[in-house]
Write a structure and sequence with these properties.
It is a single chain. The chain is mainly alpha-helical. The chain is built from seven helices and six strands; from the N terminus they run αββααααααββββ. The strands form three sheets. The protein has a two-stranded antiparallel sheet with strand order 1-2. The protein has a two-stranded antiparallel ribbon with strand order 3-4. The longest helix has about 35 residues. The protein is elongated, with a radius of gyration of 35 Å. This is M50 family metallopeptidase.
Amino acid sequence: MRRKILVLMAVFIGFCSLIYLYTFLHEGGHALVAMLGGGKVEEFVLGVNAHVRVSGTAFTPFWEALFHAAGVLLPVIILLMALLFYRPQIKKGFYHVFYIAIWLCITGSLWAWVVIPLVTLFATGPAYDDTIKFLRVTGFHPLIVASAAILMMGMLFLLAKKKGLFKKTGELMRSWKETRREGEGGPKFIFPSQPRFPPAHTGRPGRHRSLRPPRILSTGPGYAGSC
């Protein structure tokens, strides 16, 4: 029970840390472009309600489009660089778990740039979303943006596969399953309450002779008899 509680706590802490790390990269991308464009970061909030507020910007259409896309571009660039330095031969399990978690988080965030542009073909998307703002500023067709996001996901997938991230993750999962199975199960020994000897055939049908050793009766010194 205590071990399960520790595992749940570790998963919860890891999940929260992952959220803060991703929002730092996401909002950091917006803030970086804003500062490069001559603006000033007034507010930088991480977590579930993550956002960044900037002032003093005089964006051209290019810089404004880059500002809206930087929230997903910076995490993708960081992930690409991290995958180049990935080493599957490292034995620490946490190292590989961290890599696959970051890969899933950043690659999964690209789905917004696939789904939302496709939604705009039939309905109005959320006005506050970076994808909608990017489409409005650039005037790109939604299918172009969705295709670009799919290409980036494919690039991240192929690079992770080439570096051995998926193979190593599969090996770790199989190893953990075997360890858990051995911990829960294990050999079980059943001891009978009374030892029994198999009967020996005497040569006559229906008659068996017991292999139980004969009892030795002692009636005095120097005498032994059996019955």
